[in-house]
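Me: I keep going back and forth on a fold encoding question. No explanation is needed for now; the record alone will do.

Assistant:
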Amino acid sequence: MPSTLRFLLASMLAALLGTFGGCSTGWFHIGNDFDLNAFTSHVERGVTTRDQVRTWLGAPPSTGVNVDTSGQRFDEWTYYFAEGRVSNLTDTTLKMLQIKFDSKGIVQGWDLSQPSK
């Protein structure tokens, strides 16, 4: 599991435990659900713009910077969604999409994590 996904999941679980104060049957919902198909069916690396991504998925709940091993800098948007029951995390839905944009706002890559079906 990528370290960013582990961090996000750990942060979500910590927030849940604080929110429910030990209640073991509570339902949780974090982030806003987003349409992965709207992204994956339309995105073209080196062509798609930030504005197009925003139209398909809405505003990103998280933004940051990613510097790759060659030193190239990318703006990064992260979309995430999780929901389920604290008492049964095996039934939890978790998906995350991280999109890298170059300095001109063009998609240069993305990472996608979602449950296996």
About this structure: The mean pLDDT is 82. The two ends are 17 Å apart (CA to CA).
